[in-house]
Each structure stands twice: as structure tokens, then as C-alpha cells.
Amino acid sequence: FRRAHTLTVLFILTCALGYVTLLEETPQDTAYNTKRGIVASILVFLCFGVTQAKDGPFSRPHPAYWRFWLCVSVVYELFLIFILFQTVQDGRKFMKYIDPHLGVPLPERDYGGNCLIYDPGNDTDPFHNIWDKLDGFVPAHFFGWYLKTLMIRDWWMCMIISVMFEFLEYSLEHQLPNFSECWWDHWIMDVILCNGLGIYCGMKTLSWLSLKTYKWQGLWNIPTYKGKMKRIVFQFTPYSWVKFEWKPASSLRRWLAVCGIIFVFLLAELNTFYLKFVLWMPPEHYLVLLRLVFFVNVGGVAMREIYDFMDDPKFHKKLGQQAWLVAAITATEFLIVVKYDPYTLTLSLPFYITQCWILGIILVLTWTAWRFFIRDITLRYKEIRRQKQEHRHEKDKCLSNGDGHSALLDEPNGNKPRERKL
């Protein structure tokens, strides 16, 4: 039935597209016809994928919604591959076909400079530095971290990623001026206010979802209109709830997996800034916003697939398809950045920054070696030593009985005690 339904939808869509092309006279503009043909091909593919792609772990608001984003992931990955195989000039010119205003070099905004919270030299507005930093990215930071918390479902991992990205901004501000910010912009506005408040609200939402009673009832079986409206709203909440317990210190496998998740998250965050830098896209452009909306939808599915694979590898024998696509997209975006501007990416880090990163890597490797190798060997050695001491103590106790006999087992056998000769 599903396959017949798919063929019917594809047939209707193809007939509609053919009918439109037959009614109007085909323009002689090659670029316009190419653009229109590509869009029509993508629509047909999305229609096929929404009905035929494999279902993911989510079923709300509808499985077709998540199949749609899976197909969008394939289209986006193919687009990135196409951009990757172009020259730098042709790749930037190609962006003009999407938006004629693109393809123009843009100056990077520097958020550093005067870092005085209270500027006594400005008589009109001493707090002008704070107001200058309060742009549209402040609510974007808050809502972004609210949604990331709903994906990761762990307070510690969210805080680690948030703080690590600020360290990356400190480390890479010599490459992108956009990373240059005041200290209070890094730690007070970003980490504490925007990111911290978003993570807090996200954790409160997760607590509500975990305590909510999941009892679904058909819409037409609900007698009141208020109940019907409530049921429609709850259709956009999860069908059931799974609490993520990452437990990174429980085994070496889980520790490496959590480190890999944090690495991919940070790389995807960096790709946002580097892509708009190498492709000459302004930060407020709708393509930047669409990319963030895309990652919000596919990231939640990918995190659930990763957690299911880690939590029960016997049942989930292979990683989910959306998780593989997200990893491939992140890697392809990074390759585009490397190809389009290798000079910026290879600017050497300042010496003190290099020292800090080397020290941090050494500390992480040292803790990993101690926790999963040295500590286990030490505990195993102590356990063997304790067993030997107990065995020696029992042997000395047996010999202290005198004539070479011991009543270690005085179990009743009828009315007579049973003795064991040493």
C-alpha cells in the first residue's frame, strides 16, 4: 500500500510539473531553466524520500516529517560535494545563482576593541559598549543552546561544549576577527547569560518531559474542545521519553564516543563562522539561518541514534543513517573551508595558546590513561593481593589447631560432625 501510494504521489507531481511546462513557453534563459530544473528534481526526490525512506527513532509530530529532513540532508550533502569540486572563484560565483547579492567580499566585524563596561569618556551613554553587543545574536545564542540542550540532554556535556567554544574563540581570533570579543562578552554575556540561561531552561523542559504522563488518546475520542486543542499541541511533544545517561567514565568506549560527540559539535559550530567567511555570506543572511534550522532538526535525530547505538549495541548493531549523514556533512563543510581559504586556516597559533592546548591535551590523555588503564591494573593488583592475604590467613588458622587436623567444615551430617584432614 505504501509503495502504491508513493507511485501515485510521484505520478501526480510529475504530471503537474509537466502540465506547467507545457502551458508556458519555455524561456530562452539557460540559467533560469537550469535553476528551475534543479528545483523540480529536488522536489521529486523529496517527495519520493518522504514516503519511502527508512523511519528514524522519532514518531512525533509525524514520521514523514523526520524522513523529509533525512532527504534534505542528502540534498545538502550533494550540494556541498558540488561546491567542494569547484574552484574558489566558481564556487563563490555559484552562490550568486542562489542570491544575486552574494559573491561579494565582506568585512568581518570585530566585537573587541573598547572593553570598558562603564566608559566615563562617553558623556551621552557610558554603557554604550554593552548596548553595542546586544544585537540579534543574543536571542540566537539563547534559543540555540536551549535547543542543543534538548538534543544532548545532559547538563555537563552542554556546559563543557559551551566553555570549550569560548576557548576556541580565544585561540582562533587571530584568524577570524569575528571571534575577537571582550572578556565580559565571552564569559558573562555568552557563557553565563545566553548559554547558561538557555541550558537551564532546556534542562527544566527536559525535567517536565521526563515527568509527563505519556498516555495518547485519539483526537475524536476526546469529548471537550479544550482536550482536543491540548491533544493537538501535545502532538508536537515526544511519543515517549528516553533519559540520556552518557556515563563517559564507565568504559573507554563510552569515553571516546563522548569525546567524539563533543569534537563534532565544536567542529560544526566553527564551520558556521568559517563557511560564511570563505563563501562571503553576511551573518544575517537567510542561508545561515536555514543551516542552523537544518542542524536543529537533524541533530536531535542523530543524537538519539548515537545514544541508542551506545546504550544497546546488541540491538542497534549499526549507527543510524542520520548520524552518518551529519558526520559526513560536518566533514565536507570543513573540507570546503580548507580548500577555499587554506591560508587563513594555517595561520600559526600564538605561542601561549599552543602551550595551553598542549597542556590541556596532556592532561586529558593522562586522565584517560589513569582512569582506564593504570587504575584498573592497580585495582586488579590490590584484589589479587587481598585474596592472597585471606588465603594465607585461613591457612595459618588451620595450622594453629594443633595435630594437623582442622574442623573447617563442621556441617551436621546426621548427629556427627564432619572433619576434613589437612
Automatic annotation (TrEMBL):
Keyword line: Endoplasmic reticulum, Lipid biosynthesis, Lipid metabolism, Membrane, Phospholipid biosynthesis, Phospholipid metabolism, Transferase, Transmembrane, Transmembrane helix
Catalysed reaction equations from the record: 1-(1Z-octadecenyl)-2-(5Z,8Z,11Z,14Z- eicosatetraenoyl)-sn-glycero-3-phosphoethanolamine + L-serine = 1-(1Z-octadecenyl)-2-(5Z,8Z,11Z,14Z-eicosatetraenoyl)-sn-glycero-3-phospho-L-serine + ethanolamine; 1-octadecanoyl-2-(5Z,8Z,11Z,14Z)-eicosatetraenoyl-sn-glycero-3-phosphoethanolamine + L-serine = 1-octadecanoyl-2-(5Z,8Z,11Z,14Z)-eicosatetraenoyl-sn-glycero-3-phosphoserine + ethanolamine; 1-(1Z-octadecenyl)-2-(4Z,7Z,10Z,13Z,16Z,19Z-docosahexaenoyl)-sn-glycero-3-phosphoethanolamine + L-serine = 1-(1Z-octadecenyl)-2-(4Z,7Z,10Z,13Z,16Z,19Z-docosahexaenoyl)-sn-glycero-3-phospho-L-serine + ethanolamine; 1-octadecanoyl-2-(4Z,7Z,10Z,13Z,16Z,19Z-docosahexaenoyl)-sn-glycero-3-phosphoethanolamine + L-serine = 1-octadecanoyl-2-(4Z,7Z,10Z,13Z,16Z,19Z-docosahexaenoyl)-sn-glycero-3-phosphoserine + ethanolamine
Top enzyme category: transferase
Membrane-spanning ranges: 6-24, 36-53, 65-85, 155-172, 184-203, 255-274, 286-303, 323-340, 352-373
Protein topology in the membrane: Multi-pass membrane protein
Region (Disordered): 392-422
Name of this protein: Phosphatidylserine synthase
Organism in which the protein naturally occurs: Formicarius rufipectus
